[in-house]
Write a structure and sequence with these properties.
Oligomer: single chain
Order of helices and strands: HHHEHHEH
Helix content: 55-70%
Distance between the termini: 41 Å
Number of helices: 6
Radius of gyration: 18 Å
Number of domains: 2
Strand order of the largest sheet: 1-2
Shape: globular
């Protein structure tokens, strides 16, 4: 939870009067809770494992779709990501050199956003 609290404080810092007080309040809040956080980085990693590359916008769409349609009784599993990615029809095939970088250097392949005027 420390990393989550640090990220929240960093995001909220411009609006906080007291960072120390905010850290204390968040630490107290999370003392008896846990949260499992899924990010677009997880989506990109699962996509690359399935030889697919997404833009950040497509990864966000997949993440929202997973949130809307997951089974709360079972939560989300890595296999749910792979299945959703395969069924989405989004993204493009990973290029050989991107796959090489992913496998050997753990470099995620992420497409840049589409430029306006291009479909």
């Amino acid at each position: 939870m420390e990393q989550l609290i640090t990220e929240l404080i960093t995001t909220l810092r411009p609006t906080l009067r007291s960072v120390r007080k905010a850290e204390h309040l968040l630490a107290d809040y999370w003392a008896d809770r846990i949260a499992l956080i899924w990010t677009t980085e997880n989506i990109h990693r699962a996509a690359n494992e399935n030889k697919t590359v997404f833009t950040e916008q497509q990864a966000r769409e997949i993440l929202r779709n997973l949130h809307r349609h997951h089974n709360p009784q079972y939560g989300l599993r890595w296999s749910d990501l792979a299945e959703t990615i395969q069924q989405s029809g989004l993204g493009r095939d990973i290029r050989q050199w991107e796959l090489h970088l992913f496998i050997h250097r753990d470099v995620l392949a992420i497409d840049p956003p589409q430029k306006k005027g291009r479909s």
